Amino acid sequence: MELNFFPWFKKMAEPPSLNASLQAISRRAERLDPKQQAETYVSLGGIEHTLLNPDHSIIYGRRGTGKTHIISFVASRARSNGDIAVVIDLRTIGSNGYIYADESLPITERATRILRDFTAAIHDALLENFTAPSSTLKIDRFSSALDALADSVKEVIVREQVEEKIGSQTSDAISGSAEGKISLSPASLGGGVIAKGEARHTIADNREYLVKGRPTLSINIGGASKALAQIGIRLQSRVWFMIDEWSTVPEVLQPFLADYIKRVLFPIQNFSVHIAAIEQRANFRIGEGATSIGIELGSDAFADVNLDDQLVLENDAEKATNFFKQLIFRHFNAVHTAAGGKAFDTADEFVRNAFTQEPAFRELVRACEGVPRDAINILQIAATRAQDERISVSHIRSAAHDWYERDKASYLNNNQQAAELLHWIIESVIGARRARAFLVRSDLRNDILERLFDERILHIAKRSYSAKDEAGTRYKVWKLDYGSYVDLINTSRAPIAFLPNAETTSEASINVPEDDFRAIRRSILDIDSFYAQRSIDPP
Fold this sequence. Notes:
This protein is of the alpha/beta class. The protein has 18 helices and 14 strands. The protein has a five-stranded parallel sheet, with helices on both faces. Strands 3-6-5-4 form a four-stranded antiparallel sheet. A three-stranded antiparallel sheet has the order 12-14-13. The longest helix is centred in the first third of the chain and has 25 residues, at 107-131.
């Protein structure tokens, strides 16, 4: 029996063209089944081995850098080793996720809700693992602990409030009402309660007392911790908790969730936790000293995996090129063969057949700025433009510009200050300096600059760089997204170097400047001058 692992791309009577198969590549790892993820995974400096270390860790990376793919691959590898892998996507927990961002609610209520929903997600995932047809575990060994974990989020507390009121008559009255729906089965811990009740008694001196009760949700953290510890003791294997989409949780709530994870999951010896987050949008700890809550990076968990740094072309051009060559080759072969096409034997053979020349593929690597999802999107637009032809440099350039306008520029359309800052940077760097990179002091924090980084409009080429004439001062080397200036190439305004005064490209045939860190003068960008010109304070 033949299985088609790409059901959205059905087998055709005639094998599809190369460009048709390129257009069918999935852009998101979570849409692939475990077999597909294993087939298309490309090792990135052995990161997967780092994550199979039992230490707790944070995986940083912007959208599209491959966090979900790595998490899914590591989870699959852990299962193949006989361990249990629990993958929790924080975008999907809770039936009323919008309530986390509702600033009209008290922070305590919002935090309690997310902790309850997170606990419910753990409960459901463990139950699914224990009862799976392929599981060799006996559920009766864990049922009492799972019930205790379920009980930890069932608690509803009614806090009384007494009001004194002057009355004119003596009377007794009791009234009450309740409405709502609760679902507290072991498989689903969601639910809500709306209840109200009051009792009145008027005494002889005509003073009336009104007692009101308001139910609030609660969570027994000690009970949850004890239940999970019991599960850990009864297991002979390790449990890997892979927590994805951390940065979708409101930043104000993240330290509370981090503290819960540290208190409930971290202490259990055979539990390992990996959290995938966007660095600039992650808030793992608040407070100092004894009053702090959350996860302390470097102590409670390590944060030495940063996907944003792994594929920067300026740091290692050969590594980045080889990675993307293997990535696209494997995705292409999986889709092409599923549709009846013949697989290529090597990545180099694929590139020779799909691209007009090697420089065209290198242009794709440069255009995607180290982001795998951007590489696939640009490639698919280029394949559409190429139709039955092989993909050329001009196809890549026009596709990169289109992708920038479709995906990244939409953020600028809704954020005027970010659009103005980016325009000023482009004018200051490309217009005035004929470069496409700039330096900013490492200790400068600018929310708009960081947001442009999150949206993949700006990129960090190097996180720590020092100028010889300014000993002790460290800079970050930032660069503009390829799509933001590609339409200037072959014009009088085209950048001629990576940094000002750097040597020009040796690849004159495609007219793209090579990246070079040797030029320092005139490279430092004074962002404060942007705000000074507008007489506003920087964020």
